[in-house]
Write a structure and sequence with these properties.
single chain; 633 residues; 7-stranded mixed sheet; 17 helices; globular; Zeta_carotene_desat/Oxidored; Amino_oxidase; FAD-dependent oxidoreductase; FAD/NAD-bd_sf
């Protein structure tokens, strides 16, 4: 029985482990922390008893390989849909403009009337995505030398407002500025989200441990050929004397999880002979940079290109209050104009079990998760300070918002300008701020594609996995991590178990580039008109708000007139229940390999929606069309 050593128990490592275990391999998974999940981790804080997580994560429809694993590990009911990104301007909780399913064409009219930006700039935003998708295949490599901003501002129709909207959405999702991000990577992401855009994405309806990572780990541990080695931090990679294989892995046995602790100690060391084993390196680019020295560099000098890859830290505020805030949206919401590119999600309305201990008739205390996509300016100060053990306020935050000296104080100053929260409302024991500097997110910077490693290496028994390893997803995503793990597993299977079933990778479909080229040409006059309209708005805006009100009335009348012919106005989604979009399925037959994911899980075999996870039919259940023809929208 062939043995495989996988270093890194993140999504890539766990994906590779699952597929290799299914094919009869013995898998040992080494992890430097005392928890699994990598960027999807969730660990118990021993002081507060709360779970600390690395941001919230969005799961679009086209994550087919992830959805397939989610189905296999039994977590089909653990997700809830979202279709909007909202914008909080100042403290206007009564008015929250939104972008609905912004990657696709079906909500064109709905977004024009959404208030997220002036109508002409919203049209230009959507037209610019068509323009990007119209780029022919042979120019894709060239696009990697352009930033998203560079591409957008090279277009004569582009406006500052439309470009800023791209920046806001990109920074919200990927924690990287559009002036740094590769246009090629952006195009790849838009290509897939455009095809599968309703709903835009799903969120876990509970913490990542109970709702995702524990079921996944339980699945791995159901194989008697699986071993997990936590608190094993890889210290050195030693090739054989010929430099053709990895002969030995040397680990430091640490006392605390390095990813989430500033201080940790080495308690012991161990060396593992892997000369006859397969090795998958599913660690971060930062770890590769640290390990790539001496004989390892001599054996695989091409991995030195990883030194060019960059990663970005992300700040995360877990904001617990001692009161309930009304009127907060259920969607991912941008603090428009705030420092640090901040967004928030109200876990009180997202996590299904959060109100279990709330008295009948009362509302649960609000729990917000706030992400800060740009915290580089805060790296030189401590994330937070707490009272020491033995103090009467043991482990509570020390806050002086008038004279901030920690990152959390600067962030809270921004948050409290937008939300009706006083210092006395904050639960100082549970609230916490993480800089996540030990697990930075790989950034798809301009020119990074050619620097990224392939799955296979010159070393006969070493394969690479991780979001930064080249794969069809390109953009640093959960799905990209899954695919990279599957690619490594398939390489090992093909080498050592040729008679076993191949490890398949499901590739999303995309609309043909010719369609977008035709739309780009046909709508070019409209884009030029929108640019002139936007310029007119700049001039007319100097004369007060009456022009904005007049413009809004014109748009509303136009939308109402055109509604029967294009666009859609779906019923409000049941956020914690079934999906409520009548056109959300792609009308694929159930044996189709891409007929997978929540939009299929929520329907029974007769084509009726399931409600609350059950199989009973309600009056508003909708019978789906049968047949193999794909939805054209």
């Amino acid at each position: 029985m062939k043995k495989v050593a996988i270093v890194g128990a993140g999504v890539a490592g766990m994906s590779a482990a699952l597929r290799l275990l299914e094919r009869g391999f013995h898998v040992t998974l080494y992890e430097q922390d005392d928890f699994v999940g990598g960027m999807l981790h969730s660990y118990r804080d021993k002081v507060t008893g709360t779970r600390r997580e690395h941001s919230y994560h969005m799961f679009p429809n086209f994550y087919f390989n992830f959805w397939k694993i989610a189905e296999e590990i039994g977590i089909k009911n653990n997700f809830t849909p979202r279709e909007a990104f909202r914008f909080l301007r100042g403290d206007e909780l009564d008015r929250l403009p939104a972008m609905f399913n912004p990657s696709g064409p079906q909500d064109f009219l709905r977004n024009m009337d959404s208030g997220a930006a002036p109508p002409p700039d919203l049209f230009i935003y959507m037209y610019s995505m068509i323009d990007m998708l119209a780029e022919p295949e042979h120019k894709h490599d060239l696009l990697d030398t352009y930033s998203v901003n560079g591409f957008l501002h090279s277009r004569p129709y582009m406006t500052r407002i439309a470009a800023d909207l791209h920046q806001t959405l990109w920074e919200t999702v990927w924690a990287i500025s559009s002036y740094q991000a590769s246009a090629k990577s952006y195009r790849t992401f838009v290509k897939y989200t455009n095809r599968y855009s309703v709903p835009e994405f799903f969120l876990l309806a509970g913490n990542k441990w109970d709702y995702l990572m524990k079921p996944w780990l339980d699945k791995l541990e159901s194989f008697d050929r699986f071993e997990l080695k936590p608190l094993h931090r890889l210290a050195k990679v030693v090739p054989d004397k010929d430099g053709k294989r990895i002969a030995r892995l040397e680990f430091d046995i640490v006392n605390r999880s390095p990813s989430v602790n500033d201080s940790w100690d080495v308690e012991d060391k161990c060396a593992v002979d892997v000369g006859n084993d397969a090795v998958v390196m599913a660690v971060t680019p930062g770890a590769i940079k640290r390990l790539l020295r001496d004989e390892f560099y001599d054996a695989a000098p091409h991995l030195g290109e990883v030194q060019y890859l960059e990663a970005e830290p992300m700040g995360a505020l877990q904001f617990y209050l001692k009161c309930h805030i009304d009127k907060l949206p259920k969607d991912v919401t941008d603090f428009e104009g705030a420092k640090y590119y901040m967004t928030f999600l109200d876990y009180t309305q997202l996590w299904r079990d959060i109100g279990e201990h709330t008295a009948p008739g009362e509302k649960p205390d609000t729990f917000l998760y706030v992400t800060c996509s740009d915290v580089v300016s805060l790296l030189s100060i401590p994330p937070e300070k707490r009272h020491p053990e033995g103090h009467k306020k043991e482990h509570q935050l020390i806050l002086d918002l008038d004279h901030p000296t920690t990152a959390i104080e600067y962030v809270l100053n921004e948050v409290m300008q937008h939300l009706p929260v006083d210092l006395d409302d904050i639960d100082l024991r549970k609230t916490a701020f993480d800089m996540n500097t030990g697990e930075e997110l790989f950034a798809n910077m301009v020119g990074s594609w050619e620097r990224r490693p392939d799955t296979e290496t010159p070393l006969e028994n070493l394969w690479m996995a991780g979001t930064y390893v080249k794969n069809i997803m390109d953009v640093s995503t959960i799905e990209g991590a899954v695919i990279s793990g599957l690619n490594a597993a398939e390489c090992i299977r093909a080498r050592h178990a040729k008679k076993s079933d191949p490890v398949t990778v499901l590739e999303p479909e995309a609309f043909p580039v010719e369609l977008f080229q035709a739309l780009k040409l046909a709508w070019a006059p409209l884009a030029a008109s929108a640019k002139m309209w936007s310029e007119a708005n700049t001039v007319m805006g100097r004369y007060g708000s009456s022009w904005d009100e007049t413009q809004r009335k014109i748009i509303k009348a136009g939308v109402k007139a055109l509604e029967p012919f294009m666009g859609r106005k779906p019923n409000p989604p049941h956020y914690l229940g079934p999906i409520n979009w009548t056109n959300s399925v792609r009308n694929l037959p159930r044996d189709h390999p891409l007929a997978i994911g929540p939009i299929y899980w929520n329907y029974d075999e007769n084509g009726f929606r399931k409600h609350g996870g059950g199989h009973h039919k309600k009056k508003h259940g909708v019978k789906l069309q049968s047949g193999s023809e794909h939805d054209k929208g």
